[in-house]
Structure formats: C-alpha cells, structure tokens
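Researcher: I'd like a candidate sequence for this fold, 359 residues long. If you have to choose between options at a position, lean toward the conservative one.
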C-alpha cells in the first residue's frame, strides 16, 4: 500500500516533522529527509554513519574504535545545531555551506531544552537502528546493544558551541552513563571557558595553516574568527587539565595541505593530548560543483603518513596508530597520552568514563 499523502502531496512523516520544527525551511526539510537525518525537535538531529552500519554487520569499525576504544555500533552521531555554523569549509561533506539556498530560518524558532534533546536524540537513534533487528547479517547481541547507545559524537553538522546550553546537554548524556566526544571549530573561546560540563573528549578542528588560507577555504562568517580561533587554542590548552583534548586536521589537496610550520605552531599553542591527521573525503556536500573539488582532492594514506611523520618531527608528538580506511593517523603528546588513549569504563562496562581524563 502506498503511503498516505497529505493535501500537498507529502507523506505523514513530512507533516510530523514540519509540525515539530516549524522554523525549518521546506526545501531544507525535504533534503534532510532524503539524506536520512532523523530530526529531534527544532534544531537537533541524528544520522547513522557508515561505520555504525558496517560494525552492526560484523565489518570494519570507525577510527574512534581503533584509536580510543569506542564501540561503533553503540555510537550516536548527532548535532544540537542542525541549522547553524559560522564556517563554510569548501571540503565539508555536509550541506551547511549551501544552506542558504534552502531558505531562511522561520520566526517560530526557539532553542529546545537540553533534557528534551537528549531524550529525543536517543529515541531517534533507536529508530535509526530498528531496521537491523530483522537483518540476518546482524547478530542479535549487536542489535540489542545498538538499541542502547553508550557513546555520543556531537559532530554531525553545525557548530555545537552555538547551542547556548551545551554544558547541560553534555551533563544529561553523562547522567545516562554515556561518553561524549564534541567537535568544535574553536571560535567561541569565551563560551568554552564557561561550560559547566566538559565532554569526555574535546576536539578543535585545525583546518588551515594561516589566516590567508583560513579566509579563503574556510570562508568564516566574520573576518575576526581567526583571532578567536587562536584564542580557542589557548583555551583548549587550559581545558586539557579537565578533559581529553584533540586537534583534528582535515586536509584537502591544494586547499590546506601546505604550511606545516603553521600547523606545528598551533599544536604548540594548544598542546592537545592527541592530534588526528586526516584527509578530507569526497562525499556528500564536498561533491557540490561550486566547491571545485574532485576525487583527487583527497590525500592518499601514504601522503597522510608522510605529513604525520613531518609533524611528529616538528612537534615531538609520537605516531601512535592509524586507520587506513579513513585515511587518518593519530599522534600522541607523550607516553602517558599513548597509554591512556583507550577509554576505560566503569566496572569494565561501557558507559560513563571512570576518570573523565584518563590522562
């Protein structure tokens, strides 16, 4: 039987989401549905990633599993800022750099409460994995575990520091016995300093060797964001006393894969526990014609290894691990960071980290 259509020719699912998020532009909502995002309230969403799908079927897991011990099939990839980002990176795989062509946010928009967002996102994840219950390639125990996510990756799209209650949202996930990885672009240092709760692991994206490359390829909403980013690196250094910290590089050929001295200086400012040296991936939004990218924009695994080796020599950080399918190499600050990179769990079970730092 065909799905019941609304008066405008759209299904019940569309009508339900439109009612829940009235400020979301119509064209953007249709795009998100096509791309299999599961909306959670006005501005949050979850999406099952390739590695969760692979792990559920007994295949390869995400680099976060190899580097830090995260179970990919129990990872909730999500965002509390579906509609907002102050960067428009040319290599971003999301739709964010072109979001304006889908319409502007309506006047009915209001921030959702973090307690509700956490509940909605966990429910969305359960819906996302529900179809795997009848898949003969998925072991029953893996499916049952996937229905009870234990890790939250706040990295799907947007800039999470723009959500005004991010600390409370982190606390809500931690209260439920979940670990959290949060990825920020570092341009809100004044907010980062005031978060009442830190993520289990805090990432700052390191995406340009200098201000000129930053303005050209990251296309920030304000010209002064480079200075804010540098301040964010200083804040990250301080926050390293409270939680695990990472600088994450996303390298794109001819865009930001040069000037390693500039990256080394940024590492020296932030002194993170870890540095991830990674190639961009030519998928999703990165394929938009206006970005002027191609498959050759991706760096090979050997090129990533060479860059990681040079950065190791320049910074003293040691090469620790790699994940070739993701074209990423992990650098550790010191022996203690290396020995602590695999997250320990309470009583040997997955859940809230026994020590938030393990560093």
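Model: Candidate sequence:
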């Amino acid at each position: 039987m065909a799905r019941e259509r609304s008066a405008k020719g759209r299904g019940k699912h569309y009508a339900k989401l439109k009612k829940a998020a009235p400020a979301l532009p119509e064209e953007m909502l249709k795009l998100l549905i096509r791309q299999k995002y599961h909306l959670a309230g006005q501005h949050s969403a979850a999406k099952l990633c390739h590695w969760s799908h692979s792990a559920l079927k007994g295949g390869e897991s995400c680099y976060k599993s190899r580097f830090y011990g995260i179970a990919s099939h129990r990872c909730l990839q999500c965002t509390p800022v579906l509609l907002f980002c102050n960067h428009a990176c040319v290599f971003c795989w999301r739709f964010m750099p072109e979001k304006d062509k889908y319409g502007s946010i309506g006047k009915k928009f209001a921030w959702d409460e973090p307690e509700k967002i956490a509940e909605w996102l966990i429910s969305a994840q359960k819906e996302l994995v529900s179809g795997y219950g009848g898949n003969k390639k998925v072991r029953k125990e893996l499916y049952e575990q996937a229905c009870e996510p234990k890790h939250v990756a706040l990295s799907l799209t947007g800039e999470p520091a723009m959500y005004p209650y991010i600390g409370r949202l982190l606390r809500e996930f931690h209260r439920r016995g979940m670990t959290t990885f949060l990825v920020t672009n570092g341009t809100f240092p004044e907010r980062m300093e005031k978060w009442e709760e830190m993520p289990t692991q805090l990432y700052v994206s390191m995406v340009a060797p200098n201000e000129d490359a930053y303005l050209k390829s990251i296309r920030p909403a304000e010209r002064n964001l480079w200075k804010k980013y540098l301040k964010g690196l200083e804040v990250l250094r301080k926050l390293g006393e409270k939680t695990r910290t990472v600088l994450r590089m996303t390298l794109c050929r001819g865009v930001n894969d040069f000037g390693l001295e500039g990256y080394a200086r940024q590492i020296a400012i932030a002194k993170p526990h870890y540095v991830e040296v990674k190639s961009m991936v030519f998928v999703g939004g990165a394929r938009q014609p206006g970005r002027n990218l191609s498959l050759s924009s991706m760096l090979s695994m050997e090129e990533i290894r060479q860059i990681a080796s040079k950065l190791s020599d320049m910074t003293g950080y040691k090469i620790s691990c790699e994940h070739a399918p993701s074209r990423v190499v992990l650098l550790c600050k010191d022996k203690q960071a290396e020995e602590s990179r695999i997250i320990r769990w309470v009583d040997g079970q997955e859940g809230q980290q026994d020590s938030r730092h393990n560093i």
